[in-house]
Amino acid sequence: xxxxxxxxxxxxxxxxxxxxxxxxxxxxxxxxxxxxxxxxxxxxxxxxxxxxxxxxxxxxxxxxxx
Length: 66
What we know:
Shape: elongated
Helix content: over 70%
Order of helices and strands: HHHH
Number of helices: 4
Structural class: mainly alpha
Largest sheet: none
Distance between the termini: 37 Å
């Protein structure tokens, strides 16, 4: 039970990172899939989610989005 509580606290403490990874990564992935140029890049989903995660990590470390 303590392990689950600790994991939940870690997830909640890193909410900006998770938002960037999941939400922004999904949005960037959808935009890239619709683009003729970006859609032809191999592993574009990986790169879109990586960029979303990096944006979220930057926001997490700075403490704010902008």
